[in-house]
Specification:
The chain is mainly α.
Length: about 900
């Protein structure tokens, strides 16, 4: 049965409201623990198992670790309840396969609020074993001796009553201890009055054991009992007494034998990485009770397998704790450990469905969830699966109702400072400083975090990245990132912690983080595109949110644009809505428009770039970038006069894009059919103006496909030499398009190469060029060319790339000409007239006539490189050659 949620119950006077502690899923964790427990039972029930062997490796512990508020304590309590009473086990959890072994669960809360101490831990274990009803004389004698030495005048029974342990576990222990003392005294033939004096009993017992008297042969089987009874009865000795419990458990009759499952919760609260005194005592408990099974829950992985802890703890290293040794960084942070003996599991976030289920069952009225679907949806999305956030939202829901307000979905677009308090509660001051610093990043590495925090040492960062709220993607550029909800809360909530940052502190941290990104980019390889894009994305977001100067972003933006790859750069939405317009905000919009133009209509691109250029926020060189790409988009839309004016302005300015603008002017001459002027201009462009590609664009419309292919091939090689992947892909796309008109036997390879190069970049027009090339390769055949043309036409229309519509129609005209489909050719010519009515690309109409050997219906205004008849003959020959090839194939 679910428990009552008392906090919710005492938050409202509405007695019709039902409240329950909701527990959701965690089936994987149950199966993981039960599989380890089953393996443990097979080990301890083997005839070779020896509980007194203190040298053999231990594998009697599993660890569940995770961020504060993820549900570790709830899981620990549910484990205890499920093992104690099968009726308490969630229905989705299968019954453990444990044979006939009796399981005795005991959960020990190590949280500071529970006032834990090692005496209480040991007593809790012994009190739980009292339920067996079997005397444990070796341990009880040692414990009685310790208690009377450490707590003179304070009977153990009174202590158990005061601390609540007697109420929890019962009052059988003092009687069992007294019975064990009397039995030993009787065995040693001591008087009854002497039997009550623990000192005399232990002294007599030690003597009897050393003399190997037959009367004490039962206790003589414990090889280390004498040493423990003779040692100073202090806390250190007490930590070795669990060895006696292990020995007692192993010698019990089979009918009464039990396996304790000891659940140690809130393990992170027993100390820190410098002070491990309490942890050392608990580790001895685990090591010296190899026949008990331990389930430890805490915020961090257990480090006992780390050999560097030798000297701080008694038993360390992967040989001692093979199941606790991380297989590798990936397995160390996964919710599902690698197969084998890995005994540590990360407690992961709830799925969205689990979040909804949790909220639906926490509060209910008349058998229905009190929190409506729309509110549950908002909370679930904002929670990122963190149960603590769900719990805080439940309390906010009740608080809003109590104030007379009907909760609405926008009420839960909310950050809770309590999340910060829970996150930082066990961090050192340097770790908290690093945590706030790295919250500025979407991802980071140790070096970046150290610089951003302004530290000279990496130690606090190395400690922080081991925390469960730091997630890891081992093979990413920056492998670490904060849990999304923790990051958003730290940056957005009203932080009430003692060492909270002021706005000035955040501003300084942002400046450090921004500078650190710039340093990483400048220190990296010139061709490390991944690093460039990563630094730009994060740098733009930080500089925008904290209104920093452009700094290194200017040079990075030029590097980004120079390769024509166009990875998406849009930083996450600014937490400060309606922030004032700044140069960085304008640069974000500029680069976003350039990247997005591959996925939105060019008219929208022009609109965005005009707004950036007119804002006056950018320095002249970046404003020039907006004007140039605005002119390119206008050319793609067929607005050639506006494009010419923009290109001329950039060319006259003599800036970084002047050569590109001169190429643009040459291309505008080509679009108008002035091929000699375009070719002459191309010869003066050089590499910066991409001269080879312009030459190829002029040659292919002349029908000189071999010269055009050579030019595009040279353009691709030159681009590869300069490390420009985008330019190489564009050049190869046009080479494939050009050769697709011919009978070149390598056309399949050319198209394949174009597709492979384009897979690395985001170039919509070039991608469509390759797809048109595939159509041209199949022109004249019955391979669904017309259907494929229709699909491409829709995509091109959506993009607003007018020149590609005309190019596609020209490919269709070639297909009809090869098939000698005069009606089809006439239809294509009609559409080409419509697409080129502004005068640009009008020579496509001429080429369509040439293909079908038709007379021109109007005088051509194109200035061909050769006489018109020669150009006509080249295009007609390609149609004839393709038709002949297809005819020969049919004949064979």
């Amino acid at each position: 049965m679910p428990g009552r949620d008392l906090r919710a119950l005492f938050s409202t006077n509405d007695r019709t409201l039902g409240t329950a502690e909701a527990f959701t899923n965690r089936q994987a964790q149950w199966e993981f623990a039960m599989a380890a427990l089953a393996e443990h039972l097979r080990h301890v029930n083997h005839s070779a198992f020896d509980p007194e062997d203190v040298e053999v490796a231990r594998d009697n512990v599993v660890v569940f670790h995770g961020i504060g508020g993820i549900g570790k304590s709830t899981l620990s309590r549910k484990f205890e309840a499920s093992l104690a009473d099968p009726a308490q086990r969630p229905t989705q959890w299968g019954a453990p396969v444990l044979g006939r072994t009796r399981i005795l669960p005991v959960r020990i809360d190590l949280a500071r609020s529970a006032s834990p101490d090692f005496e209480k831990v040991v007593l809790s274990v012994r009190l739980a074993l009292a339920a067996i009803g079997q005397p444990l004389p070796a341990f009880d004698l040692a414990l009685r001796r310790y208690w009377e030495h450490q707590h003179p005048g304070d009977p153990l029974e009174d202590y158990l009553n005061r601390g609540g342990l007697a109420a929890r576990f019962g009052k059988a222990l003092p009687q069992q201890m007294q019975s064990a003392l009397a039995d030993v005294a009787q065995t040693l033939l001591l008087p009854g009055t002497v039997g009550s004096a623990i000192g005399q009993v232990t002294g007599a017992l030690v003597g009897a054991l050393r003399e190997r008297r037959q009367t004490v042969r039962a206790l003589a089987g414990c090889a280390r009992l004498v040493d423990l009874l003779e040692s100073e009865p202090d806390l250190d000795s007490l930590s070795y007494y669990p060895h006696l419990l292990a020995w007692e458990l192993a010698r019990m009759p089979v009918a009464k034998r039990v396996t304790p499952v000891i659940l140690l919760d809130a393990f992170e609260e027993i100390g820190d990485r410098t002070h491990r005194d309490f942890e050392r005592l608990l580790q001895r408990l685990v090591w010296l009770m190899p026949n008990a099974f331990f389930v430890i829950t805490g915020r961090s992985r257990l480090q006992w397998s780390d050999e560097a802890l030798q000297g701080q703890l008694d038993y360390t290293g992967p040989t001692a704790w093979p199941g606790l040794a991380a297989r590798d960084a990936l397995h160390a942070r996964t919710e599902f450990p690698a197969p084998g003996r890995d005994r540590q599991m990360l407690i992961g976030d709830f799925s969205f469905e689990d979040c909804d289920d949790y909220l639906a069952r926490r509060l209910f009225a008349d058998g229905r969830p009190l929190i409506g679907d729309s509110i549950r949806r908002v909370i679930g999305q904002r929670s990122h699966g963190l149960p603590l956030y769900l719990d805080l939202c439940v309390m906010r829901f009740l608080e809003l109702r109590r104030s007379g307000h009907t909760p609405q979905p926008p009420d839960f677009d909310h950050d809770f400072p309590a999340l910060i308090a829970r996150t930082v509660s066990d961090l050192t001051a340097p770790e908290r400083h690093v945590l706030r610093s790295v919250s500025l990043f979407s991802s980071f590495d140790v070096a970046l975090a150290t610089r951003a925090a302004g530290l000279s040492q990496q130690a606090p960062v190395l400690r922080l990245v081991e925390r469960p709220f730091i997630r890891e993607t081992p093979f990413a550029l920056w492998p670490f990132h904060l849990h999304a909800l923790v990051r958003a809360t730290i940056r957005g909530a009203d932080d009430q912690t003692d060492d909270r940052w002021s706005p000035a502190d955040w501003q300084q941290a942002a400046s450090r983080a921004f500078a650190a990104l710039g340093e990483q980019w400048r220190d990296g390889s010139d061709r490390d595109r991944l690093l460039l894009v990563g630094c730009l994305r994060q740098g733009l977001a930080i500089a925008r949110d904290y209104r920093l100067d452009l700094g290194w972003l200017v040079e990075a933006a030029w590097t980004y644009v120079g390769d024509s790859v166009w990875e998406p750069l849009d930083p996450a939405a600014s937490p400060e809505e309606g922030a004032a317009a700044t140069a960085v905000a304008a640069l974000v919009e500029l680069l976003s428009a350039l990247a997005r133009r591959q996925h939105e209509n060019r008219a929208r691109t022009v609109e965005r770039l005009v707004a950036v250029a007119d804002s006056g926020l950018l320095p002249a060189e970046l404003s020039e970038m907006a004007v140039y790409y605005q002119a390119k988009a206008q050319r793609d839309l067929g607005h050639t006069e506006e494009s010419r004016l923009g290109m001329q302005a950039v060319a006259v300015g003599g800036g970084r894009l002047a050569a590109n603008a001169r190429r643009g002017l040459a291309q505008l001459s080509r679009l108008a059919g002035d091929f000699p002027t375009a070719l002459e201009a191309a010869e003066r462009l050089g590499w910066e103006g991409r001269h080879h590609r312009v030459v190829g664009d002029v040659y292919w419309v002349q029908g000189t496909m071999h010269l055009a292919a050579q030019a595009f091939g040279a353009a691709r090689a030159e681009a590869e030499e300069h490390g420009k992947t985008g330019e190489a892909a564009m050049s190869q796309a046009m080479r494939a398009f050009t050769l697709a008109f011919t009978l070149d036997p390598t056309i399949d390879d050319e198209i394949d190469l174009g597709e492979r190069l384009l897979a690395q970049v985001d170039l919509r027009a070039a991608t469509l060029d390759v797809r048109i090339a595939a159509l041209l390769r199949d022109a004249g055949t019955n391979t669904g060319v017309e259907d494929r043309v229709q699909v491409l036409a829709v995509e091109i229309s959506t993009s607003g790339l007018l020149f590609l519509q005309a190019k596609l129609e020209l490919a269709r005209a070639f297909h009809h000409a090869v098939r000698d489909d005069q009606a089809g050719v006439a239809s294509s010519i009609s559409r080409l007239h419509e697409l080129t009515r502004e005068g640009y690309y009008a020579y496509y109409v001429d080429i369509a006539h040439f293909m079908a050997d038709l007379a021109l219906d109007t005088r051509s205004h194109a200035r061909w490189l050769d006489d018109q008849q020669t150009v006509r003959q080249r295009w007609r020959s390609m149609v004839i050659d393709r038709g002949a090839l297809l005819t020969s194939r049919l004949a064979t």
